[in-house]
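Entry 14. Ran structure prediction on the chain below.
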Amino acid sequence: MRRFAYLAAFVFVLASAPRAVAGTVLVGDVHVERTSSALKTQYARAFSFKAVASGTATAMDVWVEPRNDARFIQLGLYSNRSGRPAKLLDKGSTSSVIKNAWNRVTLTGAKVTQGTKYWLAILGKGSVGYANRSSHQCVAVRSSSKRATLPAKFVSKRGSDNRCASIYATTGTLLSAGWWPAWEQVPFSTIPWSALTQLIMFSDTTATTAPFLNTTIHGMTAAMQRQFVPLVHHHGDTAILSIGGSDDQGWSTACDPANRSTFISSVIGQMRRYGYDGVELDIEQGSWIGGAGFNDCVRGFHAALKATTTNAGRAPILSLDEDPSWESPDIPAVAQYLDQINLMGYNDTCVNGCAQVSHSLSTLTSHGVPASKLVDGIGLDPGMPDATNPSDCGAKAKYLSSSTTVKGVAEWSVQDDFLNNDGKGPCFNALAPYVR
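Output, structure tokens:
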């Protein structure tokens, strides 16, 4: 059991295993360390670390101990000068402090260089309980006076001690899934790789006769897929085969008990033929959704995919698209069978503090669907709010990054960002700092 101390006193207890972190840790300590200490209200404390990787820091996390009085915490990243924190590079804050947990703040984006020393600072309104350890490799200093917020230049009290806190900065944490409609005449060379982790080839559809899969629709060709999938893998991303669309109203036939096995086998055959990493179900057949046939179809895909592997020997991904404006009550029954749920709330914006985005997510989480499966939609078709509003793309990504659980963002479509904006891709440029 940890003992609680003000700044100095401690008891040795085994530290926990390192946290599994989405994104890349740039600088700091991802362990919940062995000593519990407190930082007095409105005093800042900074801890020095050498960066282990280069990148843009877009989030910071700190472990808050069970004994904590702070309801507001601000974290900051400082440069180093003569062994002391110097210039504030970025900062973020949260008023939703959770005890005995990692607490995240988002940053606007600060460049971090591997091998360079930085200082990670904490300030709270109320006493902050934080975890830390003692080491001759660590240095910590305290601000010389009370502050309402972290200052642009850190002025520290004389002296220091050898402490490291459980605090770290990371690059982007979000999965970014972009749909690639096969009919769009845009070259693959325009794909914004730095802003994507998953590309979804759209799409094959159901068919009313055996094998109940139409593979020659929506501009899909064998040659295109043979080029697309290896290119996605070359860039370290996953490639997903989409089945369905708003014009596909044949799901009730393809997933009829008499046809379901043949249909699912056909889809898996296409997945393996071209080397995809999984399958997306874009089921938009109205009243059929939520019924026994729908549930059995999703369950059948789950069972069949888990009984096979991708060409790379991995477990295939199964994702489902859903419209949060009406479909969410039907999803909890199948959520356990899905790796990823793509929300088609394309008209949601971050006007009014991202309330629309929050509401769409809550239509699922309020029914018990884990936030860790949710991928929030960004609409880039002409006429959709984000088509020519890249600042909203960035605002959504920043908002979602402030959660430690939401899986990511999904963009319809990759090509539209370039077609709408003279080939400049401003939405993806705004997303990139927040993507894994």
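The first strand starts at residue 4 and ends at 5. Will compare against last week's run tomorrow.
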